[in-house]
Design brief:
seven-stranded mixed beta sheet; single chain; Immunoglobulin-like; elongated; 3 domains; eight-stranded antiparallel beta sheet; mainly beta
Length: about 375
């Protein structure tokens, strides 16, 4: 009987131990569920420091220096719903750069403090970023004596004129583009719409008249040379754009450079130069031909300039100008570089400035008399 009792006792203890272990195993997922739904304060001041073609750089202020984080970013689908793209666990430090970002869509970023490894808090810091847009237009301002910037990827936006020049080496073929950043929209304004080097969208379209507007969702555009007939061989390369921000998410700088990773790559026979200028040529309404830019009632009101011209620029004077009057005449090329500066003693009915050494193309003529100014846009045949 004692042996039977001991055997029964042993089996009961064994069963109790097994049941206890089973209950512990049942309770374990509940404890994990509690851990996975933990709440910790989100980081402070999550913001973008820079973003451009394929990347977004972030920074934040941690609550504790030893904290680690889980970063998840989302983009909008066709139904404008946020869908997760990727999650990065165990992010340390106070900065992080996400690579492979598609800037042609809105982005949503969650940064959650980890309660334990790979277990993020349910109260993340949230940052929403609109897509970058490039507007291709014409009508850019003409810079006066533009100079190259020191770093095309970090350009101070507090400049009077900013843009870039694309030129074909050992030829007179080039185009100037003014670049203006408004919020997350870059406006790329071709300065002279008769030049053959153009910025194009994904369908090879480009603006011709001021009312034309071609939008690109993303942070780069292609450059073509229309003097090359083949639509593929005419590709010069790609220009990519980036934005630099302060702690408050306000753009304080930007960049536009050659996209060295593009396919096809930038052609070596063309030169890209990011540029800046302190002044621009202002052409008043009507200033695109002879007599443009009138000043009503002034001594220059009746002044006219022969346009187009060949060997010389003829300036026909005003009856209101007396003998001994002086005209300050400045000629610019279409890139804004000064070509000639003359102080002319007006004595005859017209003045001719010899310019037979100039290449064919477009030029800007400034005429100044005392406090009055006239501006003419001219073409040499």
């Amino acid at each position: 009987m004692a042996k039977i009792f001991n055997s029964v006792h042993f089996m009961c203890v064994f069963l109790l131990i097994c049941i206890g272990q089973s209950m512990a195993m049942v309770k374990a997922p509940q404890s994990l569920a509690i851990a996975s739904s933990c709440t910790l304060p989100p980081v402070q001041n999550l913001h973008v420091t820079s973003r451009g073609h394929g990347f977004v750089s972030l920074a934040w202020t941690p609550n504790f220096l030893e904290d680690e984080y889980t970063l998840t970013y989302f983009k909008k689908n066709e139904n404008l719903e946020w869908v997760p793209v990727d999650t990065i666990f165990d992010v340390s430090n106070q900065t992080y750069t996400i690579w492979g970002i598609d800037q042609s869509t809105d982005l949503l970023i969650h940064l959650a403090t980890n309660c334990s490894p790979m277990v993020p808090s349910t109260t993340p810091a949230v940052l929403e970023l609109p897509k970058i847009i490039l507007d291709l237009v014409v009508g850019g301002r003409i810079p006066v004596n533009p100079v190259p910037v020191s770093d095309c990827s970090n350009i101070n936006l507090e400049q009077h004129w900013l843009g870039f020049k694309v030129s074909k080496n050992n030829t007179s073929i080039f185009s100037l583009f003014e670049v203006v950043l408004v919020d997350e929209v870059f406006k790329i304004k071709r300065v002279q719409n008769s030049n053959t080097i153009v910025a194009v969208d994904g369908t090879n379209s480009f603006p011709i008249i001021p009312s034309d507007l071609y939008k690109i969702s993303g942070s780069r555009h292609r450059v073509r040379d229309l003097s090359v007939n083949d639509p593929i061989l005419s590709t010069v390369g790609y220009v990519e754009y980036n934005i630099l921000y302060n702690l408050y998410g306000i753009p304080i700088g930007a960049g536009w450079c050659i996209d060295s990773d593009s396919d096809p790559s930038w052609k070596s026979e063309y030169t890209f130069t990011a540029m800046k200028a302190d002044q621009t040529v202002i052409i008043p309404p009507g200033g695109s031909g002879t007599g443009g830019g009138s000043v009503n009632g002034g001594t220059l009101t009746d002044v006219q300039v022969e346009n187009p011209f060949t060997d010389g620029i003829k300036i026909f004077g005003s009856k209101k100008m007396g003998e001994g009057s002086f005209l300050d005449v400045t000629l610019f090329d279409i890139s804004g570089s000064e070509i000639q500066i003359k102080k002319i003693d007006y004595e005859n009915d017209y003045i001719e400035i010899p310019v037979n050494n100039l290449n064919r193309g477009f030029y800007i003529l400034h005429i100044n008399h005392e406090s009055e100014n006239r501006v003419f846009k001219l073409q040499k045949l």
